[in-house]
Amino acid sequence: MPDLESSPAASPPRAWAEINLAHLRHNLEVVNSHQPGDVMAVLKAGAYGHGMEEIAGALEALPRDIAPIFFGVASAIEARRLAHAGMQTRIYLLGATCPFERREIVAYRWTPCISSMDEAADFNRIAQQMIPSDKLKVHLTVDTGMGRGGFLPNDLLQLQDKLEKLAYLDIEGIGSHLPCADEDEAFTRAQFEQFDTLIEELGAEKFRYIHLANSAGILGYQSRHTNLQRPGLMLYGISPLATNQNELKPVLSLKSKVSLVRTLPAGQGISYGRETVLAHDTQVATIGIGYGDGYPRSMPPKLASVLVNGKRCPLLGRVTMDQIMVDVSSLPDCSSGDEVELFGENILVSEIAQLAHTIPWAVLTAITPRVTRVYNP
Predict the structure, then answer these.
(1) 251 to each of 17, 131, 266, 295, 299, how far by Cα in Å?
(2) Model pLDDT for residues 15-68, shown as the tens digit of each residue
(3) 92 an active-site residue?
(4) N or C: which end of the chain has fewer CB within 10 A?
C-alpha cells in the first residue's frame, strides 16, 4: 500500500448523481406561481435521493421571502440529522410519532402532527414536564381519505374542545393528505371540499397554518383555505401530472461512464439468463452502474435506453448489480470513458419508472450511497 505522500489521487466515481441547485430554486418558484404563500419542503428519504442535508442547506440559503418555512421529514432520526447539520428552518414530522420519539421531539421543539387524542395527551404531558413555561407547537392531522393516520372529521369536531384545553400544546396548524390527486380527479375534488368545509366548521381563524396539497394537489387543485403547500416530487423537477412537466426542471441526473466497448458476434448471449441473444454482430458497451447503485433491475432490455454521447442506446440483457450493457452500434466512435446519462434532463425518471413498473418516487429514493452526489450551484 503506498504511503500518504506517494498515494495516487483518488479516482473519480464510476457512478454519480449531478444535483442542479439552480433547478431546485426554479421548481420552488413554480410552486409559488401555482399556490402563493408559505412552503413546507418535503425532505424525507434523503430528499428523495438528492441528499437531505445538502438540499436543506441550499433551500435555507435562499432569500427569506421564498425559502421554505418548514422542512418535512418522516421520523425523529431524519429530524435529528437536520438539527445536527445546523439547520434553523422549523422541522415538521409528517406522520404519527412513536412514543419513544416524543421526548426528543419536545426537547428540540420539532413540530409533530397529532393523529389521536392519546398522542395529543402524551405530548401535552411531556411538554408539561420538559418545557413547563412554554407550549409545544403542534398541528392536527385529519384523515380525509388516506387511511394512514389522523382524526376522522366527525371525531375531530367532537374532540375540538378537549384538544384546545391541553394547556401545554399550541395547536397552530391543521392538515390532511391526498391519496390519489394524480389518479382520481373526482375523488380529490370531493376531498378538497370535505377538508375546506371541516376547516370552516372548526374555525379557520384558529389555525396559523392550513395545509393539504402535495405536488399533484399544488398543480391541479385549489382550496378555499390552505396557506401552506407541501411540495415533494415537483420540488425535484418531476411532475406527477404529465400536463405540467414542461414547467419543471429535473434536479438530479444519474450518470456513469463506459468502461468497455467490444464487438460481439451473432449468437452471443448478454447478461444473466441469456434473455438477450444477439441476432447479428453488435458493438456492445459495458457501463459501470447497476441495481447496486439504484438503476432498476426490472428495466426491460431493448425497450429501455440510456444516453451515450447525446444519443439513445438500447439496453441489452438484464441489469446486473454493478454493470449494464447497451448497444452502441450507432456510435462508431464510442470508447471507454464516455459519459452516460441513465436518467435526468434528457431521459426523465418518470419514463424509467414506467418501464420498470414502479413510480418516480421509488426510483429516486433507491439511489444507493455508493453513488456520489455532486452539487452544482
Answers:
(1) 10, 40, 40, 17, 22
(2) 999 999 999 999 999 999 999 999 999 999 999 999 999 999 999 999 999 999
(3) no
(4) N
Given 92, 135, 272, 291, the catalytic residue: 272
End-to-end CA distance of the chain: 37
Cβ neighbours around 174 below 10 Å, total: 30
Q: How many Cβ atoms are within 10 Å of 113's Cβ, its own excluded?
A: 25
The pTM of the full predicted model, rounded to 2 decimals, is 0.94
The torsion defined by the Cα of 7, 8, 10 and 12, in degrees rounded to 10, comes to -170
Look at residue 25 and tell me if it is in a domain: no
Shared domain for 263 and 235, answered yes or no, is no
In contact, 93 and 134? CB cutoff 8 Å:
no
Which residues constitute the domain of residue 60?
35-239
Q: Label the pairing between strands 324-327 and 282-287.
A: antiparallel
Same-domain status, 210 and 272: no
Which of 195, 217, 239 is the C-terminal boundary of a domain? 239
Asked if residues 44 and 77 have their Cβ atoms less than 8 Å apart, the reply is no
272 is catalytic: yes
Domain boundary among 207, 239, 271: 239
Is 23 within the bounds of a domain? Answer: no
Which long-range contacts does 313-316 make (Cβ < 8 Å, 24+ apart)? Answer: 313/285, 316/270, 316/271, 316/276, 316/278, 316/282, 316/284
Pairing of strands 282-287, 252-264: antiparallel
Does residue 179 share a domain with residue 283?
A: no
Query: How far apart (Å, rounded) are the C-alpha atoms in residues 339 and 353?
Result: 22
Here the cell at position 290 is 447497476
Contact in structure between 188 and 221 (CB atoms under 8 Å): yes
DSSP 139-191: EEEE-SS--SSSB-HHHHHHHHHHHHT-TTEEEEEEEE--SSTTT-HHHHHHH
Using one digit for the tens of pLDDT, what is the confidence trace for 248-304? 999 999 999 999 999 999 999 999 999 999 999 999 999 999 999 999 999 999 999
Catalytic: which of 44, 137, 249, 257? 44
82/174 same-domain check: yes
Q: What is the pLDDT of residues 171-191, one digit of tens each?
A: 999 999 999 999 999 999 999
